[in-house]
Amino acid sequence: MVSSSSSTLSWSSMDQKKKKRAKKKKSREVVSRTRSTTIMLCRGVGDIEDFCKEDTLEIRSSLLHWYDQNQRVFPWRKRTTKIESCDDDKEEYEFCDRAYAVWVSEVMLQQTRVATVINYYSRWMEKWPTIHHLAQASQEEVNQMWAGLGYYRRARFLLEGAKMIVEKGGEFPQTVSALRKIKGIGDYTAGAIASIAFDEAVPVVDGNVIRVIARLKAISANPKESTTIKIFWKLAGQLVDPCRPGDFNQALMELGATICSPTSPGCSLCPVAGQCRALQLCSSHKPESVTDYPAKVVKLKQRLDFWAVCVVEILEHNNVAIQKESNGKNKFLFIKRPDEGLLAGLWEFPSVPLKGEANLATRRQVMDKYLKNFFKLNTDECTIVSREDIGECVHIFTHIRLKMFVEFIVLHQKDEAKVFHAKKEDISAWKYVDGDSIDSMGLTSGVRKVYKMIQQFKQKQSLENQPRRTRKRSKRS
């Protein structure tokens, strides 16, 4: 006969074993579900299936219908023509050649917000309405028009491409393969021009398109990797509507820009929500959001660079005090950057890279050596009126954080003597610019920041030099 106490112990141990088995089973189920969800969230690009015919037709129809109802109005989407005719031998010209308009707008829109581009585009087309007009422009004029947009290499490629097309007869290439032969036109720009202007059924792939397709197919792979990018191009090519390729490509980009946004997508308003695999996964497996697609790419840490920048002002008036007050008639020294590399071919104040943070004495030593070696600064032919340490200025590039240490030198030129004597082959690399002409130059935002510091310093100095008025005390009766 088993005692009650031993019976209680046996049942207790059995309950504990059952609980352990149940806990293990539950744990396996959780792991299984987690693995399943992880697999669904992290499918490799090799596992991505093509769009089926049914989904393709539905996406085309829904997206184009949505685009027809909701497309934004931009000047480059207008098919406007303006004809000029005079008694002279002026030829009639098309004001807004479709391919040229698409080309200019797409290049401007790269890395730049739409709201910023609109005014730049309108001014550009007013000055150079056709590719033939642009081909006659100088790089200086183009840089001046582009000033403030950044990524100045784009402007150079536009000008070089226009000259190339005009030199070959002036007929705009109409296919992707032909467009790719023009300098500065890559896969995306070629696809945009060919599809929008010439109805070639080819895809375009930019950040907006990648985001939309990544969510349609629940692709969480790194969108920057070459193998992943190839998949996006293939899938985008499957979706392009053969009857309206240009409108479809614009609709796909428009969807990514307005509804399928990076952080706050409006899924309830999306015309292709029914075909969105990412949205389906959110409903069944409960990941945080469709914003998990595509994968977030870790941004590279910006490189920190240091420059010594010297603004050199030349006074020519015999009366130095008078000339210092007349900024517009004074001359400033500008240097043209090399044709390759950062800010290629653009004008700036004399600048020298530093190895790191440097004190004022070190910076001046480096700058003096630069001015003497490159310009053969002749101190016997001028008088140093003043030399001031103005301060620091930070300018941000995509991959560089540039810290500039700015100083201001005022030189008085004696008679007709030349202060600077550059080598003959370097003459085109520098020039004097009147103070009242600087604002009209095509200067970068960084250079304008430096010049603004100089203007503020001079204004402050001018106020400090003004004689103070003394108040007369009234005599008390």
Automatic annotation (TrEMBL):
Q: Name one Pfam family in it.
A: HhH-GPD
Top enzyme category:
hydrolase
For region Disordered, the annotated ranges are: 1-31
Biased composition annotated in UniProt, kind: Low complexity: 1-13
Q: Give the location in the cell.
A: Mitochondrion; Nucleus
Q: Give the protein's cofactors.
A: [4Fe-4S] cluster
Domain (HhH-GPD): give its ranges: 108-258
Recorded GO molecular functions are:
4 iron, 4 sulfur cluster binding; 8-oxo-7,8-dihydroguanine DNA N-glycosylase activity; adenine/guanine mispair binding; metal ion binding; oxidized purine DNA binding; purine-specific mismatch base pair DNA N-glycosylase activity
Top-level division of the source organism's lineage: Eukaryota
User: EC number(s)?
Assistant: 3.2.2.31
GO BP terms: namely: base-excision repair; mismatch repair
Keywords on record: 4Fe-4S, DNA damage, DNA repair, Glycosidase, Hydrolase, Iron, Iron-sulfur, Metal-binding, Mitochondrion, Nucleus
State how the cofactor is bound. Answer: Binds 1 [4Fe-4S] cluster.
Compositional bias of type Basic residues: which residue ranges? Answer: 17-27
Q: Name one GO cellular component term.
A: mitochondrion
Which reactions appear under catalytic activity for this entry? Hydrolyzes free adenine bases from 7,8-dihydro-8-oxoguanine:adenine mismatched double-stranded DNA, leaving an apurinic site
Q: Which SMART domains match?
A: ENDO3c
The task this protein performs is described as:
Adenine glycosylase active on G-A mispairs.
Q: Which family is this protein grouped under?
A: Belongs to the Nth/MutY family.
The name on file for this protein is Adenine DNA glycosylase
Which organism is this protein's natural source?
A: Stephania japonica
